[in-house]
Amino acid sequence: MASYNRVILLGNLTRDPEMKYLPSGTAVANFGMAMSERYTDRTTGEQRENVCFVDLEAWDRQAEIVNEYLSKGSPVFIEGSLKFDSWETPEGEKRSRLKVRVFRLQLIGGRRDGDEVGGGYTQATPPDTTSMQGQSDQTSGSSESASDTSTEDNIPF
User: Fold this and answer.
1) Residue by residue, what is the 3-state secondary structure of 57-85?
2) pLDDT tens, 21-30?
3) What is the pLDDT, as a whole number, of residue 80?
4) Which uninterrupted H or E stretch holds 139?
5) 69 vs 61, 74, 112, 130, 151, CA distance in Å?
6) Closest Cα partner for 8 from 98, 77, 62?
């Protein structure tokens, strides 16, 4: 039987990333993430919130990016796969944990010092619409500017 192991998450970090380096020099960052879902309880009509906490690990350059740009509370978009870890404690107890190994991450928002990173947005200057003003007025039948009325006729391709 075929299988597919892919996870897509959008949430906020629950703690600062913990960065480690293996003896080979490979970087590994471990961090946690929380996702919340809000809904209205059908029986009581009250607003409820369901929060899910997930452990994540990133490797190599992604680990360095996580460590450099993310901190507790940072929003992030993650793609990865589920990974099952099991170990035995010094007392002989068996433990296990399910976590997500990060394949792709997208930073959302900016750094705390105001510098934009990752998925930060900048406001673009609108193009000069003076040459399209007459065409826009004719096609839309209004006196609004070309930047206010977008029609398929205004697309240059």
Assistant:
1) EEEHHHHHHHHHHCCCCCEEEEEEEEEEE
2) 999 999 999 9
3) 95
4) helix 133-140
5) 12, 9, 9, 42, 40
6) 77
**Is the full-model pTM beyond 0.90?**
no
Tokens of 62: 């992604």
Q: How far apart are CA 157 and CA 71, in angstroms?
A: 42
99: Cβ contacts below 8 Å, ≥ 6 apart: 54, 55, 56, 57, 82, 83, 85
Q: Which of 154, 99, 105, 110 is nearest to 132 (CA)?
A: 154
Between CA 130 and CA 76 the distance in angstroms is 40
What is the signed CA dihedral for 148, 149, 152, 157, rounded to 10 degrees? -30
Using CA atoms, how far apart are residues 155 and 157, in angstroms rounded to an integer? 6
Q: Rounded to 5 degrees, what are φ and ψ at 112?
A: -65, -25
**pLDDT (tens digit per residue) in 105-146:** 988 875 545 443 333 333 233 333 333 333 334 433 434 444
Give, in order, the Cα–Cα distances in Å from 156 to each of 90, 137, 139, 147, 150: 68, 17, 15, 14, 12
DSSP state of 110: B
Give 123's DSSP letter: P
